[in-house]
């Protein structure tokens, strides 16, 4: 275990292009439930009701969507970055982060101090709302407050289009620019560190394989085994926060 920490720290020091790939496990340590896990909101709502096509076509679906989404947003709004987020932000400060590709929608990388051009959000961002017609962007809290008063699905004040949290829903296409960028960065990385992802949801799951095939070292830090453990150069089955904190301590010492 100590060997693994030291190895990863040295690789970060030596690397020119480290890509971090962040999954739900990173944010559960900040108190954000993994919405897909048992007891999550999907146990109480029917995912069928939340397909993008239904959101577009039915006011009833939109109201249901906003109810569920409001419930998910509560913990996101309150959450603070944990030591793993802070470690990733520190990597950027030290010039040791090409980018972080994240499956999380909670914007905690930004709260931790990462800059906009270093974070690729594959599933969008729950802290703002966009108009599906004209693209106008709104602060989430502002819309939530309005929703609490009207109990109606909110509309754009510029064009009367439908407003939706800026996250990717079931049945909605992955964001093209972000997905392409994530593939590009993965294939050009020389060190690819997976943190808190079980690597089962596509297309995210194929990124470590692409990185590895292009010659990157692959590190997996996840509490449970993943289908890619056999392919990895180092696997650490432990919590993200304490592990990343230890690694960054060594990196800082190594960089002097
Ligand atoms: Zn609009």
Descriptive overview:
The chain is an alpha/beta fold and 256 residues long. It folds into 2 domains: 1-32 and 81-123 and 174-256, Rossmann fold, CATH 3.40.50.1220; 34-78 and 124-167, SIR2/SIRT2 'Small Domain', CATH 3.30.1600. Helices cover 42% and strands 16% of the residues. It has 10 helices and 9 strands. It has helices spanning 2-14, 24-28, 52-57, 59-78, 83-93, 108-112, 140-150, 176-188, 207-213, 240-255; strands at 18-22, 99-102, 119-121, 124-131, 137-139, 163-167, 191-195, 217-221, 234-236. The strands form 2 sheets. Strands 3-2-1-7-8-9 form a 6-stranded parallel sheet, with helices on both faces. Strands 5-4-6 form a 3-stranded antiparallel sheet. Helix 1 packs across helix 10 (240-255) and helix 8 (176-188) packs parallel to helix 9. The longest helix is centred in the first third of the chain and has 20 residues, at 59-78. The model has no long low-confidence stretch (mean pLDDT 93). Zinc ion (ZN) binds at residues 131, 133-134, 136, 156, 158-159, 161.
Helix and strand layout, with pairings?
Blueprint (H helix, E strand, L loop, with lengths): L1 H13 L3 E5 L1 H5 L23 H6 L1 H20 L4 H11 L5 E4 L5 H5 L6 E3 L2 E8 L5 E3 H11 L12 E5 L8 H13 L2 E5 L11 H7 L3 E5 L12 E3 L3 H16 L1
Parallel strand pairs: 1-2, 1-7, 2-3, 7-8, 8-9
Antiparallel strand pairs: 4-5, 4-6
């Amino acid at each position: 275990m100590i060997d693994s920490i030291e190895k990863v720290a040295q690789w970060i020091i030596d690397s020119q292009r480290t890509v971090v790939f962040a999954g739900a496990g990173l944010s559960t340590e900040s108190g954000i439930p993994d919405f897909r896990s048992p007891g999550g909101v999907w146990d109480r709502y029917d995912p069928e009701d939340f397909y993008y096509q239904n959101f577009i076509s039915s006011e009833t679906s939109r109201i249901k969507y906003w109810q569920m989404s409001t419930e998910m947003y509560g913990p996101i709004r309150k959450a603070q970055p944990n030591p793993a987020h802070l470690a990733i932000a520190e990597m950027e400060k030290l010039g040791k982060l090409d980018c972080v590709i994240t499956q999380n929608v909670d914007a905690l990388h930004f709260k931790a101090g990462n800059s906009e051009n270093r974070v690729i959000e594959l599933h969008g961002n729950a802290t703002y709302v966009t108009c599906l017609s004209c693209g106008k962007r709104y602060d989430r809290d502002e819309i939530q407050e309005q929703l609490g008063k009207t109990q109606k699905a909110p509309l754009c004040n510029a064009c009367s289009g439908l407003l939706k949290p800026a996250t990717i829903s079931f049945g909605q296409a992955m964001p093209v620019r972000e997905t392409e960028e994530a593939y590009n960065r993965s294939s050009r990385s020389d060190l690819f560190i997976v943190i808190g992802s079980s690597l089962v949801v596509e297309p995210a799951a194929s990124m470590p394989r692409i990185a590895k095939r292009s010659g990157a070292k692959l590190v997996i830090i996840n509490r449970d085994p993943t289908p890619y453990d056999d392919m990895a150069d180092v696997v650490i089955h432990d919590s993200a926060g304490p592990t990343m904190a230890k690694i960054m301590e060594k990196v800082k010492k190594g960089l002097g």
